[in-house]
């Protein structure tokens, strides 16, 4: 098929899933056209089936807010028409689904029919989309899509609960490239970071409020009071400097390393013993899946779709949001020499259920259905 993919080209989970999906589809013989405002960060190699089309947003003194949605819709029309797209797949409702609706109408006026598949990723529904400033547009453009998917059953439930949706929503979970995300031998790195054999805890995120990074630090300090441990923090975002101050206030700064935005996160995961995900909300938890694929068990909250990935007592442990004391206890339980090997093994086995080759065919079926019914 000729597939157009629209996404945020950044490090965020929705952009990562969209880019990895495009790469997998290209390897399966489809021609994939990315339509975004800059090159997706993970689109860093050549493949004859992959194309990138930049959305250019001209500015003008009159524009306080450059009209990205109009420029995006115009680009979708251009690419759909000139590259003979069979389907447009937009990731993250705002503003991609409404821009796709506009593009579809313009193409229809030119005698071209193009089905639109919308994938909802989480904050586009649970945070931003619910806001009255966006809700009518989000509801309308979801209902106008020819196919709608969410990344967990919980996100589907929330979408039906908060929006007047008349469409069937298909759950297609996040997936993982198990050849890239696997435990690698990085013992020299581990010896440098944890020379006394300390346990290594890790958290990766965009340091936004929803991730509750403060809880990560408090859980770590609680664990470190009982056993020797170090904490690795990967990523960057609005809460980063507040967390650096908190580390000093809690007097744990010597055992915490802020590593910033790392591309080869699998290398750091390979030396880690436990992944912390105390999120307020998480539609799926791609970062936890990446950890599990590298044999790292997960201590998390039971928010959103996390329990659909992390099984309590098997691949990690679940607690209520904000229950730091429980997460400290759970971390110590998982990290004990007696329990850690079985948790590691189960984490990898669970991750294998989300292998890219198992999940990508579900998107192919979804596209074929949208083409057949639109
Ligand atoms: O995690 C984020 O805040 C980024 C966000 C995004 O849309 O880029 O991630 C969401 O989509 C990921 C991929 O589907 C999910 O794995 C994350 O759980 C989800 N994040 C939240 O729901 C907070």
How would you summarize this macromolecular structure in one to three sentences?
The protein has 14 helices and 13 strands.
Would you kindly provide a written description of the structure presented here, covering whatever features stand out?
The chain is of the alpha/beta class and 374 residues long. It folds into two domains: 2-175 and 355-373, 3-Layer(aba) Sandwich (Rossmann fold), CATH 3.40.50.2000; 187-352, Rossmann fold (3-Layer(aba) Sandwich). Helices cover 42% and strands 17% of the residues. It has 14 helices and 13 strands. The protein has helices at residues 13-27, 68-82, 93-109, 123-126, 135-144, 153-162, 187-193, 213-224, 240-249, 265-269, 286-293, 324-335, 340-352, 356-373; strands at residues 2-6, 31-36, 50-54, 87-91, 116-120, 147-150, 169-171, 199-204, 229-234, 256-260, 274-277, 298-301, 316-319. A seven-stranded parallel β-sheet has the order 3-2-1-4-5-6-7, with helices on both faces. Strands 10-9-8-11-12-13 form a six-stranded parallel β-sheet, with helices on both faces. Strand 4, helix 3 (93-109) and strand 5 (116-120) form a beta-alpha-beta unit. The radius of gyration is 21 Å and the shape is elongated. The model has no long low-confidence stretch (mean pLDDT 96). Ligand GMT binds next to helix 1. It holds the Pfam family Glycos_transf_1. Residues 11-180 form the Glycosyltransferase subfamily 4-like N-terminal domain. It comes from Hymenobacter aranciens. This is N-acetyl-alpha-D-glucosaminyl L-malate synthase BshA. Residues 189-348 form the Glycosyl transferase family domain.
